[in-house]
Amino acid sequence: MTGSLQKKNGKYYAVINIYQNGNRKQKWIDTGFAIKGNKMRAEKFLREEISHYEAISGTIQSDTLLCDYARYWLESRKGKIDIVSYESYEKLLDSDICPYFKERKTKLNDVNVKTVQEYFDYKSQYGRKKDNTGLSASTLKKHKNVLSQVLKCAAKEGYITSNPCQYVELPKVEKYEAKFLTSEQASAMLSAIKGERLYPILLIATCYGMRRSEICGLQWDAIDFVNNTVTVKRTMVKQKTLVIKNSTKTASSHRTYPLLSIIKQELLRIRHEQEDNRRFFGNGYIESNQVFTWEDGRPITSEYVSHKFKKLIAKYNLPDVRLHDLRHSCASIMLSAGMQLKDVQEWLGHSDISMTANVYGHLDDTRKKKVANEISGLLSI
Fold first, then answer.
1. pLDDT tens, 236-271?
2. Torsion sign, CA atoms 239, 244, 250, 254
3. Total-model pTM
4. How far is the C-alpha of 219 from the C-alpha of 108, rounded, in Å?
């Protein structure tokens, strides 16, 4: 198989000549390298891509390396799944799955329950590259999802007899014990950070219990300043590519809140600032319609919000909670005020009240005590 490097839009592209039924088809692959100073890196990328396509061209054999077949599978998913899912699969294959099996030269006909179980056992002990400790059970579950799809495809195409991932045992996912801020702690936190850029984002997270992807996904058409409502109808997701999805996690996550006056005030201030920035940057301003942006219009990402929140916790010596714990705190404050689980379910956008009860049922003490006292009084015991 042959290929060449081509220059386009200031970058190198690997062009692979693929022959199908006697016809040549060229495949252009972005190397990700700028032309200046990267020729050797681009050539190495080209050689690796040629080797990859040689391994999967024509009829795949059972002695094909598993890592090569995994990339063939990933290529087959392109255009069939959304870009964020594709990039998350690609990241797992490139960072963990393919390097492990490539180092061991594992072929498709070597794959069985033992070899796959060994992968998960190894990753559960030494999977983290930073400190050589084990990956969490929830992360291993994501690995299993991707590897299972690869091997299910191989079994379907007849290269292996069955998918061994179905028999793999993973560590049990430990239930996360959510942390909560009391209403007093939440008020103190918001007072401390009022001058910070993240203040309106954290205010919304605390008052509405919205997920970070929902807050960062807010666009101006979701804010109704006349009827005083804010609607959750989009989410921001990102791997390599930043995507604003015109959908929420579940149908019940699509919800509308009353626009609290304190939040309305912040949003009007932000809109006014964006108008000033739009005039200042002129043609350099990036139009996105996002509510939360940098001065030049670029959207503020959910990853940045989580990262900055950790710094604010340390800066102001606040209780050590995660950003997502503000969602939990919102639920806790509601229950402490005597509201019912059904109220919390609808406010947070849970699809089922059993999910709400599973996470917050043990906090519903105020209402339960009230019911108990009423029963005791009615029975006159």
1. 998 888 888 887 777 778 999 999 999 999 999 999
2. positive
3. 0.74
4. 47
Taking 3-state DSSP, the helix, strand and coil percentages for the chain, each rounded to the nearest 5, stand at 55, 15, 30
Beta-carbon contacts of residue 91 (< 8 Å; ≥ 6 apart)? 239, 240
Inter-helix orientation angle 66-77/39-56, to 10°: 90
Instruction: Give the tens place of pLDDT for each residue, 98-127.
Output: 999 999 999 988 899 999 999 999 999 998
Which residues on adjacent β-strands are paired with residue 290?
219
Instruction: Give the Cβ contact number of residue 375 at 10 Å.
Output: 10
Look at residue 256 in the predicted model and tell me its pLDDT: 95
Which tokens belong to 313? 């916790």
Question: Would you state the structure tokens that stand for residue 149, as one six-digit string?
Answer: 């799809």
Token pair belonging to 279? 């005039």
Sheet with 2-8, side-by-side order of all strands: 2-8, 11-20, 23-34
d(CA 260, CA 217): 19
Sequential DSSP letters for 247-313: S-SSGGG-EEEE--HHHHHHHHHHHHHHHHHHHHHGGG-----BSSB-TTSPBPPHHHHHHHHHHHH
